Sequence to fold (345 residues):
Amino acid sequence: MSKKEYTVGFEIIGTGRAVPPKRITNDELAKTLDTNDEWIRSHTGIGARHIADEHTACSDLAVEAARNALSWAIECHACAEKTLEELALTVDMVIVCSSTADYFCCPATACIVQNAIGAKNAGAMDVVDACSSFIYGLETGAGLLSVNKDRRRALVIGAEVLSRFVDWTDRGTCVLFGDGAGAVLLEKTDSSKGLLRTILGADGSGAEHLVMKRGGSRNPFKQGDTVETPPHIEMNGRAVYNFAVSAVTETITSLLKAENLTIEDIALIVPHQANARIVQAAAKRLNIPEEKFFLNIEEYANTSAASIPIALDEINRSGALHSGDLIICVGFGAGLSYGGNLIRW
Ligand code: ACO
Fold:
């Protein structure tokens, strides 16, 4: 479908984020792990990560980010609703994108968030697709608004507490991840702003490259199991790296082609913050200046589904974008899954 055929827009009218205050630098990690700041920075671009305290679960970060997104919509967008409570009642869908839900299997974390923010008229669901979840969640939100004329607003939240699911003795993975949440409030409007097109893809043949093996129906916990090695992410870093560079490159190329755009039409690319070297390699392959890519991985590390909405909130609050600017968000991760959203700001 070409741009001109869209009759409704799915505009982002609020953004918010929540990041735990506890910040661990590379040097601090190196006190208990055989690693160092130079290796982590040169291989990943990461300088620090924020880690949730033991009382904070995924929904706690999601709720804070959601409230911040609602507040932005009230303060900076011409919403008729003037309080958080009033605006929350107008939300039709709460979607939490996460691989680190509050509870194993059920309930959906989105239900906990829906109750906490007082979105009493909203449906609630989780989207689980690792680091690509927010890209999928934005398209899910827009899709759910588009198929029902009575739905107008969807809160799409990326939230993760990955620190609970890494092996803190494995220097190959634990240095990469951090905790956090980001949220956007999506509104169905008749403007040309908002989500214009999404590309989604997957290659399940790479499922074993990034996986949490224990605890699911394939490998359930058994009586007598110990918690000496709690469930944690296992990764074939090199395979994921190669996949990620291709996924970023191909997604950006396909989005531009589908909308008959060139890279000069795009104000900013917001990639999933997994590794600065992935972005550098993709930029080189696409012949795009690295400055076109937004990077905040140095401060937050890889927050999986939260990384793109955290970045969107930072960008929004910095005033770096102008109304009407085109941006591309591009995500990739376990699955292997990938995707991109083209958005008019
Ligand atoms: N500190 C010091 N040395 C280290 C560390 C560390 N933290 N980690 C690994 N090393 C060592 C290794 O032991 C190895 O040593 P050796 O040569 O003596 O055996 C050496 O560094 C090289 O290790 P590699 O694993 O080959 O390093 P590589 O250059 O491939 O970088 C990395 C590893 C950063 C993980 C890279 O492969 C990568 O970024 N992959 C992509 C990861 C990713 O994007 N994940 C995102 C998805 S996450 C999700 O979806 C939940």
